[in-house]
Specification:
The chain is built from six helices and 13 strands. By secondary structure, the protein is an alpha+beta fold.
Length: 208
């Protein structure tokens, strides 16, 4: 039982807003205590056509939240006959997490998306407290990632610059945080054209 209490935790995720959208990035290592349980864990999940989340914390909790959020968004669109905004998405997620505050989800998420008001990045804590950010990071490697992000971030960044900065931040965390790593760095961009996963070869080139 003691081993089971050491949930799959430890990660580094990053969210960066650029001039015309947002970038989300994560590494792919999942740990169970000091055991590497997966080297290819999925930590960026597409929730809507132009909305995605990054996951950090217990993998069971984060996956459950993603499923619930997808279902609630579908209900929202059916009942209101309209696309959901990023602000409405984070508010919905906050309500879900606040409803179980006495037995909270073991999750720290970043919600990134694009709507009629442009690109948005939100971070949210396990009991539903959220805040809009220009750049943010979660997980055990976040202190390292923050050092890179805050050194290179500008509000007028172009997409290529934001992608490069996100890769640098994740790469630095992978090198210094024992709970971050895995086989790859995953990056998505979100703009008016939707959620797009950046080519893996391009990421490898940027990570050198």
């Amino acid at each position: 039982m003691q081993t089971l209490k050491k949930l799959k935790t430890g990660t580094t995720t990053v969210g960066i807003a650029y001039k015309d959208g947002v970038v989300l990035a994560a590494e792919s290592k999942s740990t169970l205590g000091y055991l590497v349980s997966s080297k290819t864990a999925e930590k960026i999940i597409k929730i809507e056509d132009r909305i995605a989340i990054t996951t950090a914390g217990g993998s069971g909790d984060t996956q459950a939240l993603a499923r619930i959020l997808k279902a609630e968004i579908n209900l929202y669109k059916l009942t209101r006959n309209t696309e959901i905004t990023v602000k409405a998405t984070i508010t919905l997620l906050a309500n879900i997490m606040q409803a179980v505050r006495y037995y909270p989800y073991m999750a720290m998420l970043i919600v990134g998306g694009f709507d009629k008001d442009g690109g948005h990045i939100y971070s949210i804590d396990p009991v539903g407290g959220f805040e809009e950010e220009k750049c943010t990071s979660t997980g055990s490697g976040s202190p390292i990632a923050y050092g890179v992000i805050e050194d290179g971030f500008r509000e007028d960044m172009l997409k290529e610059e934001a992608v490069k900065l996100a890769v640098r931040a994740i790469r630095s965390a992978r090198e210094r945080d024992i709970f971050s790593g895995g086989k790859e760095i995953v990056v998505v961009t979100i703009d008016k054209n939707g959620v797009e996963f950046v080519n893996k070869d391009k990421i490898k080139e940027l990570a050198k």
